[in-house]
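tokens incoming
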């Protein structure tokens, strides 16, 4: 599903160059649950941004589902993000003025009504109906009318996971999904991600926490922008 070959990325801050990734190669098959582990500054987030088509490598190739996406234009990358990849962030990235159901429905508003994913069972319905069903799936239907400030950290992360799921993506990229949560709530989120993986979705989790990484079937370790184990 994912093939990275010789990926490099250097950031320039004034006159200083920082090499975030130095020749990373990685292969991930469909249905894997993989932890991308490493300390702060190891290149984890840069790798996640490239995998999520949020950034381009300076060199190397990135083949996603048989398609080389490393040199695609912005519009093409946006379409891939909207259709094939779901994102879950440490800080949730929810819009504070919107309710849970409105936040979850948001990715579908970029599509035409005739181009919405099917609900379970194959039935077609509108964005808010799909959002309601997706929130129910992550156990948050009773709180769908609440705004982020009215929800706990774990509930906000469930909203974020529902937002990632609503486009029916093949891949979910989770960047430190338990980083802002207490231990018990973090374990609930990990169980939810494991359940989604059991359904056949490919899950990649960026983390610096060894106990979180150990819950994934496979661990990829980065140090100073280089792959030290995969």
């Amino acid at each position: 599903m994912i093939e990275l070959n010789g990926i490099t990325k250097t950031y320039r801050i004034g006159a200083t160059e920082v090499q975030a990734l130095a020749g990373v190669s990685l292969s991930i098959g469909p249905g894997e649950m993989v932890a991308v582990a490493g300390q702060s500054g190891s290149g984890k987030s840069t790798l996640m941004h490239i995998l999520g088509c949020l950034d381009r490598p300076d060199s190397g190739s990135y083949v996603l589902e048989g398609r080389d996406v490393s040199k695609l234009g912005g519009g093409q990358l946006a379409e891939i993000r909207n259709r094939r990849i779901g994102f879950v962030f440490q800080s949730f990235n929810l819009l504070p003025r919107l309710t849970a159901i409105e936040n979850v429905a948001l990715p579908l508003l970029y599509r035409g009504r005739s181009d919405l994913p099917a609900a379970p069972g194959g039935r077609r319905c509108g964005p808010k109906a799909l959002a309601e069903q997706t929130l129910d799936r992550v156990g948050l239907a009773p709180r769908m009318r609440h705004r982020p400030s009215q929800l706990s950290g774990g509930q906000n992360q469930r909203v974020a996971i529902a937002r990632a799921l609503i486009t029916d993506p093949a891949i979910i990229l989770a960047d430190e999904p338990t980083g802002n949560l207490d231990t018990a709530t973090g374990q609930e989120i990990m169980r939810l991600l494991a359940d989604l993986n059991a359904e056949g979705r490919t899950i990649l989790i960026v983390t610096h926490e060894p106990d979180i990484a150990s819950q994934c079937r496979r661990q990829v370790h980065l140090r100073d922008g280089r792959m030290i184990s995969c």
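note: The beta strands are 2-13, 16-28, 33-37, 59-64, 67-68, 85-89, 171-175, 202-207, 218-223, 226-229.
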